[in-house]
Structures are given as structure tokens and as C-alpha cells.
UniProtKB/TrEMBL annotation:
Keywords: Membrane, Transmembrane, Transmembrane helix. The chain crosses the membrane at residues 35-55. It comes from the Bacteria. This is Potassium channel domain-containing protein. Gene3D superfamilies: 1.10.287.70.
């Protein structure tokens, strides 16, 4: 009978499999768990790419705002 693991072990397993698929300590052996690991990886990759895209858009908007502010400052003399 497998022992029950705590939240730390679950977080370690989920983070490891999200970062590198199949390189974690936990290997799925049945078809449902393989699908679960695949779904977990797809969700993780999607969240990471959406976060990076959002940060890049915010950075670009801040740069445009700063350029406009500097232009107004120089034009006001």
C-alpha cells in the first residue's frame, strides 16, 4: 500500500513535471495518469507563456508612456 504524501511532496512532483515533462521522480504508469500529467504540462506551459506575454505588454506600454512624458517635458521648456 503506497504511503500518503504531504503537500510539499505534491508540490515538488507537480513543479518538476511541469518544468520538464517526464524528468520528475513521479512517473505515470496508467493511461489516466499519463493524460493527467499531459494536461498538467499543457496548463503549466500556457500559464507561463501568458504571464510572460502580459509582462512584455506592460513593459512596452510603460516605455511608450515614458517617451511621451520625456517629450512633453522637453517641449514645455
Amino acid at each position: 500500500m503506497p504511503s500518503r504524501a504531504g503537500a510539499g511532496t505534491a508540490t515538488d512532483g507537480g513543479g518538476g513535471t511541469m518544468a520538464i515533462v517526464g524528468a520528475g521522480d513521479f512517473t505515470p504508469h496508467t493511461k489516466p495518469t499519463r493524460l493527467l500529467f499531459l494536461f498538467n504540462s499543457l496548463i503549466g506551459i500556457s500559464v507561463m507563456s501568458l504571464t510572460l506575454t502580459c509582462l512584455m505588454q506592460v513593459h512596452a506600454a510603460l516605455q511608450r508612456r515614458n517617451v511621451l512624458a520625456v517629450n512633453i517635458h522637453f517641449l514645455s521648456g
